Amino acid sequence: MAAKTDLYDLAPLHLRSGEGRHLDLEVPVDAFDLGAERYDVAPSSVPVRLDVSRMNHGGTALRLQFTAQLQGPCMRCLEPASPAYEVDAREVDQPGEGPELDSPYVDGEVVDLGAWVRDALALTLPAQVLCRPDCLGLCPECGIDLNAAEPGHAHEKAPDARWAALRELTFDEPAGS
């Protein structure tokens, strides 16, 4: 069974340059608020695989892999949606080599897995969470779910209000016609 944690201390691994380890862990993930809707992460503790390798000159290369499922309303049709997302994220931490090589998730030998998992999942999410990729959404006229509506669902277009004055014109028949 995988250890459940949101922080992981790398020091007990005693890795030397060129060595690496694969760790199977469970990381709790809080719900997301997207577009004024709440999306729960299922399961609430995500099984992750953490690959750790010690680089030359004391740096650490990290790879995080997991699959998480969101549960909440579809952003188009409002029906329940539960899409799954695969995440594959990498970080490098090589202290003293510049800010681009300092990982925000590594503090000394401690990796903040909770923050990294949440951020990696957030970066993987699409702009819209949908119940299915081809979701048609709701009809803008009547609000019916277009996924369940009959094919060719349409409404008669209302006349353009800018032409309303022309509808009030009447033409008199010329005399003697």
Task: Describe the fold and architecture.
- The chain is mostly beta strands and 177 residues long.
- The chain has a domain at 3-124.
- The chain is built from 2 helices and 11 strands, in the order E-E-E-E-E-E-E-E-E-E-E-H-H.
- The chain has helices at residues 113-124, 164-167, and strands at 3-4, 7-9, 20-28, 32-34, 37-42, 45-54, 60-73, 80-81, 84-93, 106-107, 110-112.
- Strands 1, 3, 4, 5, 6, 7, 8 and 9 form an 8-stranded mixed β-sheet that branches. The protein has a 3-stranded antiparallel β-sheet with strand order 2-11-10.
- The longest helix is centred in the C-terminal third of the chain and has 12 residues, at 113-124.
- The model has no long low-confidence stretch (mean pLDDT 88).
The description of the largest β-sheet is:
8 strands, mixed
Q: What is the C-alpha radius of gyration, as a whole number of Å?
A: 28 Å
Structural class: mainly beta
Number of strands: 11
Offer a quick outline of the entry.
The protein is built from 2 helices and 11 strands, in the order βββββββββββαα. It is mainly beta.
What is the element layout, followed by pairings?
Layout: E1 3-4, E2 7-9, E3 20-28, E4 32-34, E5 37-42, E6 45-54, E7 60-73, E8 80-81, E9 84-93, E10 106-107, E11 110-112, H1 113-124, H2 164-167
Parallel strand pairs: 1-3
Antiparallel strand pairs: 2-11, 3-6, 4-5, 5-7, 6-7, 7-8, 7-9, 10-11
Short descriptors:
177 residues, 8-stranded mixed β-sheet, 3-stranded antiparallel β-sheet, elongated
